[in-house]
Design goal:
With 274 residues, the protein is of the alpha/beta class. Helices cover 35% and strands 27% of the residues.
């Protein structure tokens, strides 16, 4: 009887298990990425005239070393817009030339690849595939979610409310209608078929690139994202000892000890080498 009672009690809360799985799924990067792309798709469809702007979604193109995946391509007589979406919250720090940008949530900081550099490969792949002038292709970075830029950003790096205005700001006619039709046809015929296999192969390619970069052992400045190089203290009580110094010096004076040595070096007692 006791087992039957427990069974009946468990049946009353059967919905909790699938609810937990749903909550966990919502928190995954996959869901956040899909949801972010949905928001962008919806905004493009609602805000841009379909007769003037043609939207292509999740375009995977072959490259010399594998594949590259583009979130959105918007083709219009005013240019081709390659849109990269970032669904992130918190404060966003970054500069146009920095290798990595920083996301800060309260006191936690996370590094991520400069999306402008990431999207550069997308635009160059498209430029080569279409054999057109790269000046007619515009890179657009869209940050979604509850975030705030804490450093000045280029006009093509926007939040969810700004990228439509950026696209609309391009008013000079660059392509004729026949040229547009040819461009769309080339992209449609040149892209890889959307499938789980295509996505798996692309993910595998991305992971191999990340692994290769890690093996290069490039040390990145935790403050500004520039590369750090090995330097030697030229004066002071730590003269002759090595330390990691930011290549963005003197704008950034971040230093780190070598091999976890306790080198309490500061800008006042170190001299940067060439």
């Amino acid at each position: 009887m006791e087992l039957i009672k427990i069974f009946h009690q468990a049946l009353q809360f059967w919905f909790i298990i699938p609810l937990v799985f749903i909550i966990l799924f919502i928190k995954t990067r996959f869901f956040k990425g899909c949801f972010g792309e949905f928001i962008v798709n919806d905004a493009i469809t609602a805000s841009l005239d379909k007769n003037e702007y043609h939207l292509l979604k999740n375009v995977t193109l072959p490259t010399e070393d594998g594949t590259t995946q583009i979130d959105h391509i918007i083709v219009s007589e005013f240019g081709i817009f390659v849109v990269e979406t970032k669904n992130m919250k918190g404060w966003i720090f970054g500069g146009q030339q920095q290798k990595t940008w920083t996301q800060q949530i309260y006191k936690q900081k996370y590094k991520f690849q400069n999306p402008l550099h990431q999207n550069y490969k997308h635009t160059k792949t498209l430029e080569n595939a279409l054999n057109i002038d790269g000046a007619k292709i515009f890179s657009v970075i869209v940050f979604l979610g509850k975030n705030m830029f804490k450093t000045p950003m280029p006009e093509n790096v926007t939040d969810s409310a700004g990228y439509i205005n950026y696209i609309r700001s391009k008013k000079r006619t660059l392509f004729s209608r026949p040229e547009l039709n040819e461009i769309i046809a080339k992209i449609e015929s040149g892209k890889l078929q959307s499938s789980l296999k295509t996505n798996r192969e692309h993910v595998r390619h991305v992971k191999s690139i990340i692994s290769e970069k890690k093996n290069n052992n490039d040390k990145i400045c935790p403050k500004c994202g520039h590369k750090m190089i090995l330097r030697t203290a030229k004066k002071g009580k730590y003269k002759g000892q090595n330390f990691w110094g930011c290549t963005n010096f003197p704008k950034c004076r971040t230093i780190e000890a070598v091999l976890n040595e306790n080198l309490a070096l500061g800008p006042e007692n170190t001299e940067r080498g060439n």
